Request: fold
Amino acid sequence: MIKNQKILIALLIPLFSFNGWSQEIFDQSSKKTLRQFISENRNPEIDSRQIQVSTESSVNSDLLHFWEDLKSDVFDSICKNAELKLNQDAKISDIAGIEGKFKRFLKQFPNKKIALIDEVAVKLDASLGKEILQIPDFGALNVAIGATLEGKSVVVRPLESDKYCKELDELIDLREVKTILPINAKRISQMKEGEIWKMPVTTRFSFSTGAGAPVASFINVFIGAGVTKERKPSITLFRMKEDVLRLRIRIDRLLVKSVSGGVSSTFEIPAGDIGLFEAENILTKEINKQIAREINKYLAAKITYGHSRNSGRKILLEFLINPKDQRQLDALVEFLKGDLGFIKRFIELGLKFNEFTEVADMQQGLNGMNQVIDQAENALGVDASFAGANHYHGHSDNLNIAVPVIHNHENSWTTSYNRYQTMDTKDGVIHVSQAGRVSNGSSINIPFVGTMIKYNSDKNVYVINKESAEKGVSDPVLLFQHNVGFVRQGEGTARDIIHRINNVLKYAGVNGEGTTDELILPVDNIFPASPLPEGFDPIEDTAPSKTYKASIVSFRLMFSAEGVKQIVLAPAENILKAYLNVMRESESELLRKVAHLFKVNSKNVVEYDYKQ
Reply:
């Protein structure tokens, strides 16, 4: 068992940061083979043959989110999963707009320090539901129209310890529940270094229709469709230092169209049948309801399929404000209006942002962003330290299967396009087309305990172009990324992940001729095999194997613009040669018999003489 019972490995080939890599990669003009490019751009501080297991590594936010998703709902430390919730009747404070629903929990920062997080809901909604048609032998067709304004006051306060259990006294101390509202100069001045205030707000308008009917005992079939429009503005205040307060403003507009259908079980245990509490009061009814909900979540069997399309636009503005400067502090408070009035200011900024479209060229994009930036800068009296915009659209398909207690599996396939632009003209515009597949499986799902075994896989391919005013749109580079993670799996699973990575690396740059060991990763250094006992009989005895509590592996392989061009323009003979070279390892006997039947015709198309 490795130290801390977890492994965090980032295999970056080559290793780069998003802000620093683009100029070097896009400006490469030399004609190099893929093998030359990989060899020259490998991080000089990392030799794949010398990789050792480590519990510490610098990783990006995507990998951190992947790790958090992997560890969610998993049977783990009681202290880590501890949280406090109060319902809508709880009295937090007399602040206008605070609903009263409150949650407090602990979370670990990337630097392993524990933070105390207070979430208080802000919500106002209205909805209308109506049965408009009764379908014979099927059921009712329902239509729902809803409008929602909801937000969350999130205050993150860093604590001293890196152990969850040491901070339980802070968790249960409700003498100071902190919210972002009301915003005033005194409260902002009292923020501690490292403290974060966040207020995301969602205005949502939705229309949905659906129908469902039982087809047998405990079995229900349903179909549905919907359209949702959202505006998701948010503000974040971060006390970086005593004299530096970072303000981030985000505006996100989203349109989602979706259809779904599936089959699910309708069997459930009524809350009154649990029998834990017989007293009929509000508290015991609520406890019974929550217990029944937890149990029924794990008893439901279902298979569902859904398809959705989305499009939207985002803008991010960042300002560095000196809270010791009274003029800057007063301007900040005035800009945020001290209460929920800042939502109107977001809408004003969003109207300007509407004039900026994804088909705009670089200069049109800058003009559109500058209108939003100028309005915010004039109100705050401080120049923006950063501004960026993102236009996006895409679609996704998902297939989910749940077998009660035994196994849940979620599959999704996505494609998307993103256009990124910042106010810094030298960065230009980045165009990113993406295709991905996610497969998440969990086994032995026990009510009140959580998931015992998990295996998550996330594969993505990114095609990236850079656009500048001088050079136009560049040739693309390509990035392949594969994140794999598991909980409570044996060493065979762990070692197989590295073997599969090596099955890619051994063909890098060989041009269809054999394999190379230049980039092969040392499996035994990363996931050591358990030693065999003396006198071990491979036929009669079972080989010893350790179980890893949790692990993730991230593999990235990037192709330069020249490498992508070589792939796209490769003649059919080279493609066939490379394909047969890969097949030779696993299907050598078959290829020996049929390889001579493949040929390339006059149209540069591969043909197979199946008659022979």
Observations:
- The longest helix spans residues 362-380.
- The chain has a mean pLDDT of 73.
